[in-house]
Amino acid sequence: EAGVVQSPRYKIIEKKQPVAFWCNPISGHNTLYWYLQNLGQGPELLIRYENEEAVDDSQLPKDRFSAERLKGVDSTLKIQPAELGDSAVYLCASSLTATDGELFFGEGSRLTVL
Amino acid sequence: AQTVTQSQPEMSVQEAETVTLSCTYDTSESNYYLFWYKQPPSRQMILVIRQEAYKQQNATENRFSVNFQKAAKSFSLKISDSQLGDTAMYFCASRGWDSNYQLIWGAGTKLIIKP
Description:
Chain A contains no helices and eleven strands. By secondary structure, chain A is mostly beta strands. In chain B, a hairpin with a 6-residue loop joins β5 and β6. The A-B interface holds A 3-4, 40-45, 48, 55-56, 91, 93, 98-99, 101-103, 105-108 and B 9, 33, 35, 42-47, 50, 91, 93, 95, 100-103, 105-108, 110.
């Protein structure tokens, strides 16, 4: 069974440029999460989807970040424009349901903003 | 608000030794889960072990076991017969039923297993 797939693995951009990350969750998983992880720290939730509905986006900086999960399957996280402080690893995870305690993570997308 | 604290930023032990990683948490919820996740260098995070708060028996998964002290709000992870592949960041996390199922993460402990 395929795991959570993320792309790109690495991205280097100049500040003020846009960037997008893609995530394909495990088949059948209704809940999808986007996390931000800074070096040496735990993940911070950006947004959680139940199917195609964003049910928790309180930590998403909506002035520059946006996300979508069309058809309740794969998802895209966009940053426009990127700032130096956005350099981090962006993790996507999925779980069967919101109540399921086990999250399955992708390998992450490492963003470097110059 | 829920919090999770991991007081050991980094630990190192010799291969085959036993190591215990500490975690304390604070929650006002009566029903919750606790987790240990492992993140190897440049690889994805995976679940190591989980504990339902209503269960008194400590969870075990092969060489991994927890010491769950509910009254003290402590949830430590013991790794027996440590292996080189155990080298990773270990994150403790909690998840309550009344907090929109949000996972609260600790800052992590970097564990290095030396040959």
